[in-house]
Design brief:
This protein is an alpha+beta fold and 70 residues long. The chain has one domain. 33% of the residues lie in helices and 19% in strands. It has a two-stranded antiparallel ribbon. A hairpin with a 7-residue loop joins β1 and β2 (20-25). The longest helix has 19 residues, at 40-58. The protein is globular and about 45 Å long. The N and C termini lie far apart (36 Å). The mean pLDDT is 81. This is UvrABC system protein A. Its main location: cytoplasm. Belongs to the ABC transporter superfamily. UvrA family. It is found in: Cytoplasm. Keywords: ATP-binding, Cytoplasm, DNA damage, DNA excision, DNA repair, DNA-binding, Excision nuclease, Nucleotide-binding, Repeat.
Length: 70
């Protein structure tokens, strides 16, 4: 898998995640499955979604960012 063909998460530490390293393929349906309280939501919402939002916000100028809903 090429570097830009996947989303790389390295050393994630959030709630139940303990320094995990994962490569998630882009342009594919990906399912996160596991036992209750294993960190699935922390990985998806607290790590990947938060970083995606940060990168998206970087693409806007400060003028536009100040006018976006929070």
């Amino acid at each position: 898998m090429q570097k830009y063909d996947s989303i790389q998460v390295s050393g994630a530490r959030e709630k139940n995640l303990k320094a995990i390293h994962i490569a998630i393929p882009k342009k594919r349906i990906t399912v996160f499955a596991g036992v209750s309280v294993s960190g699935k939501s922390a990985l998806v919402f607290d790590t990947i979604a938060a970083e995606s939002q940060r990168q998206l916000n970087e693409t806007y100028s400060s003028f536009v960012r100040n006018r976006l809903p929070h």
